[in-house]
Amino acid sequence: TSWITYSLIIQPKLLSFVSMNPPTNKPFTAPPTTPWAWPWT
């Protein structure tokens, strides 16, 4: 299942990217639920 590999590889990258770049510098506000979790729930 490719989505598992995608989540395991991309999710940490997104977490690291967000942690290195504060949400205040983003043009969008992060929703309460992780945007990369809903497609395969």
UniProtKB/TrEMBL annotation:
Belongs to the ATPase protein 8 family. It is found in: Mitochondrion membrane. This is ATP synthase complex subunit 8. The lineage of its organism: Eukaryota, Metazoa, Chordata, Craniata, Vertebrata. It comes from Macronyx croceus (yellow-throated longclaw). GO terms for biological process: proton motive force-driven ATP synthesis. GO terms for cellular component: mitochondrial membrane; proton-transporting ATP synthase complex. The keyword Mitochondrion applies. It is a single-pass membrane protein.
